Amino acid sequence: MNPDLERLHPYPFEKLGTLFADLPASDKSPVAFSIGEPQHPAPDFVQQALRDNTALLAKYPGTAGLPELREAIAGWLTRRFKLQQVSSDHQVLPVNGTREALFAFTQAMLDRQRSPLVLMPNPFYQIYEGAALLGGGEPVYLPCTDATGLQPDFDAVDESTWLRTQVLFICTPGNPTGATLSSAQLKALIDLADKYDFVIASDECYSEIYRERAPAGLLQACAELGRHDYRRCVVFHSLSKRSNLPGLRSGFVAGDAEILRRFLRYRTYHGCAMPNHHQVASIAAWNDEEHVRANRALYASKFDAVLDILGEPLKVSAPDAGFYLWPKTPVDDETFARRLKSEENVTVLPGRYLSRTVQGRNPGKNRVRMALVAELDQCVEGAKRIRALIERL
């Protein structure tokens, strides 16, 4: 078997299960802040589109996706990021959710004969690391701390590292930090990609959950530079968070046409075409913004209510975007999570499970990730229980 399989770390929720394994059952109702799975109802019109198109189950889907879906995605990108042009034929590729696409993309991109480096934020979405390891690359973890605005300090990366970099993963808005990269920061990264010949893979899955200002995107930064071929730049988007459709497994990759041409060839062998009825439902979702605005309003209400309870005791404020809180803990993160589960039956994810220790420092240590995905009343109840624990510590 592939020896790199042995290099994979346990998934964060596997570690969480081990942490809680010996805890007795609680008599309190559970509140889950641990997993970032949207709990708001899926849009009715998307569900109807699925029901109306079950006949398409009798047809094999094409790997490149329906032209109508690619056109809907290109139209959404153009409107959302103020782009002059996006070729639905050459610069857009539908995928079965970004988790699958991020992993597959890395396998297609890395030249393992050149000792490739894959740079990523730390903490990070674990798929970046696993994809790098199984693709024959070496992960390089860029710490995201308060001192760096909870995004990597790219100026701290030395030239020898950039020279071996083949893929740079960025996540904006960040998971778990919620921090965003500015257009100026994205443009600086594009300059680095040109100088050192690497690809920027921008995970923008949380871009539509924001409170005031829509976050900038990598293709938007390209367009502002007059770079309409999006050379060396690809973005990953999904309907999971934007439209509360995690089970639809629908997203897309967009950007550099030459990269996508070769990635499509990989995917043709990979066998990962999106089912046709999912594609039709996705067209409806990408073409509608009303449900997205309503979704943002729901998250805003939850942040206001939860921060009214926890903001002072945890010294935490709303993130730039996304649906996570990333507070520091009054005791170490594992102890906090374990006591919270044992005493209040509230589940949060220890920050160290989302990070790696580099040079003796783990930027997730003594933080926890709280996903405000449940309904408002559950989020309020969970926040009250967390506050009760803090007051006992």
TrEMBL record:
What range(s) does the Aminotransferase class I/classII large domain occupy? 31-372
Protein name as annotated: Succinyldiaminopimelate transaminase
What does the UniProt keyword field contain? Answer: Aminotransferase, Transferase
Q: Which CDD domains match?
A: AAT_like
- Quote the SUPFAM superfamilies the UniProt record gives: PLP-dependent transferases
Cofactor(s) this protein requires: pyridoxal 5'-phosphate
Specify the domain of life of the species encoding this protein. Answer: Bacteria
